[in-house]
Design brief:
With about 425 residues, the chain is of the alpha/beta class. About 45% of the residues lie in helices and about 15% in strands. Strands 1-6-5-2-3-4 form a 6-stranded mixed beta sheet, with helices on both faces. Strands 9-15-14-11-12 form a 5-stranded mixed beta sheet, with helices on both faces. A two-stranded antiparallel ribbon has the order 7-8.
């Protein structure tokens, strides 16, 4: 089996592919693409599956092409949707396209013999002449066949506009255009894209008498059957302005044990022996959560950079792993201030414990704080406060003038000396 298919298969990423793909890969380097429609100004974690597909393609010695759908984004892909997408303005799609392109370029290598390429289908779809498109492309498609495709068939009862019905033709035309421009002979996508991919393969065969192939990756769900990448707060985005690196890290470190082994295979480049060892460690010592920590660090570093990953891992160890708050860096405390209740307090030589905990709203009144203190439920910078301790010295402040306050075992807040 060619290296790419072997790698994807053991990772559980090989959902399906065309019959001749193995022969094409064995014959020499191929150029393959995956498209990303800019329906939002950021990708989410579900988008990482096809991104990893392109990364494995490149690592196996082939050339990846990122296609940003600045043109198809104006139409909307009906695949996996139960109702019509709301149309976005051209300006919004253009802004989203620029944001997605910037995100995607972080994942691949743009140097060397297999340097990645980035294309935007607005460059060719925007100048298409309708009559020419219908004559040159539309004539190769049977409406009967299009109606049988899952992306269309699933929408027939609820209704589908001609706009979204035509999406398949536009995606097929993208494949043909990339074949002509860049020699692309492989399209990757999620399993819900199989119908669109095979339509492009057929168009290349009919229009150019050439062979092309398709490869689809699985759509991810959790062990509980819920949609991957969704939390109570909403989708988990790659844009740090939408989902902070700390929240991103927490999403991965909170992975269910039943999902973690799969996620290590899907979303990291760790080798087989390392993942197998983490599987064994998780089975033997599940409370340690070593596998989740490795998963969270690896994916966060890939998306947000190693410095950000180290910082949020430092914060997470302190809050949830029994780490010593006095070892936290000023940068880690700055990150933490954006994630938990925070207040600034005027500088003084010392502070009344009741006032400090009320300032960060950890209790509704001084009387409530007093009761917590008497019950031994309060800590400052990792030091448990005795019931008689009503004063906290400014000299106890952490780097940057911070005080990490804790109520109970996991309820945290930060106070910081102003100025």
């Amino acid at each position: 089996m060619p290296a790419l298919l072997d790698e994807l298969a053991w990772r559980g990423l090989l959902y399906d592919h065309t019959d001749r793909l193995a022969d094409a890969l064995a014959a020499g380097p191929v150029t393959g693409y995956c498209g990303f429609d800019p329906t939002a100004d950021s990708l989410h974690v579900g988008s990482l599956i096809p991104v990893m597909g392109l990364l494995h393609l490149q690592q196996a010695g082939h050339r990846p092409v990122i296609l940003v759908g600045g043109g198809t984004g104006l139409i909307g892909d009906p695949s996996g949707k139960s109702s019509e997408r709301p149309l976005q303005s051209r300006d919004q799609i253009a802004a989203n396209s620029a944001a997605l392109r910037k995100q995607l370029e972080r994942f691949l290598d743009f140097t060397g013999p297999h340097a990645a390429l980035v294309r935007d289908n607005a460059d060719w779809l925007g100048s298409l002449v309708l009559v020419d498109f219908l004559r040159d492309v539309g004539k190769h498609f049977s409406v009967n066949v299009m109606l049988a495709k899952d992306s269309v068939k699933s929408r027939l009862e609820a209704g589908i506009s001609f706009t979204e019905f035509s999406y398949m033709l536009l995606q097929a035309y993208d494949f043909l255009e990339l074949y002509r421009r860049d020699g692309v002979t492989l399209q990757l996508g999620g399993s819900d894209q199989w119908g669109n991919i095979t339509a492009g393969i057929e168009l290349i065969r009919r229009a150019c008498a050439a062979e092309a192939n398709g490869l689809v990756l699985p759509l991810v769900t959790t062990a509980t059957g819920t949609k991957f990448g969704k939390t109570e707060a909403g989708a988990v985005w790659l844009d740090p302005a939408r989902t902070s690196p700390y929240q991103f890290y927490q999403f991965w470190i909170n992975s269910d044990d039943r999902d973690t082994g799969r996620y290590l295979r899907y979303f990291t480049l760790l080798p087989r022996d390392a993942i197998t060892a983490l599987d064994a460690e998780m089975a033997a010592n599940p409370a340690r959560r070593d596998a989740q920590q490795q998963l969270a660090f690896d994916v966060t570093a890939r998306v947000h950079g190693e410095d950000a990953a180290r910082t949020v891992a430092e914060v997470s160890r302190t809050l949830f792993g029994g780490g010593d708050p006095r070892t936290l860096s000023a940068r880690a405390l700055e990150v933490l201030a954006a994630e938990i209740p925070y207040a600034e307090v005027s500088r003084a030589e010392s502070f009344d414990t009741l006032d400090l905990f009320c300032a960060v709203r950890m209790a509704p009144s001084k009387g409530a704080v007093r009761r917590l203190l008497e019950q031994g439920g309060l800590s400052v910078n990792g030091r448990k406060l005795p019931s008689t301790d009503r004063t906290i010295a400014a000299a106890e402040a952490l780097p940057g003038g911070y005080f990490l306050l804790r109520k109970g075992s996991r309820d945290y807040a930060l106070a910081r000396l102003a100025g």
